[in-house]
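call fold(seq) -> tokens
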Amino acid sequence: MSNSNKPNALFWIIGIISLLWNAMGVNQYIQQAYNTDAFKAMYPDKKVMELALNTPSWVMAAFAIAVFGGVFGSIFLLLRKQIAKPIFLVSLVAIIIQMFYNVFMSRAMDVYGPGVYNAYYGYWFCSIYTLVY
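ret:
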């Protein structure tokens, strides 16, 4: 009987979903950073658009580190490299910085209402679960 370190199906499902999720984040970052027409079309409400366009550069930098770190972490996770965990940790710290601004320093609560927390809880859960897994 052989003992292999072959990962189970759940590993591959989590890794692929993580890669896709973070790739969507990279797409969102690029659209916001370059202020594309597709980005502008997502926000027909003037208050929401103003909030997105007035995001400070340090928050955009945290956003970039979070999503690109997530993509690289996911790739290394799928390749089963140990470097994935520290990359995910850096990504998580960047998410914390970005979310701190979005929840406590911006006017997101005024613009989106209390539902703003639902998305942030989802990001935290997914990020921490991927890091721990």
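The mean pLDDT is 85.
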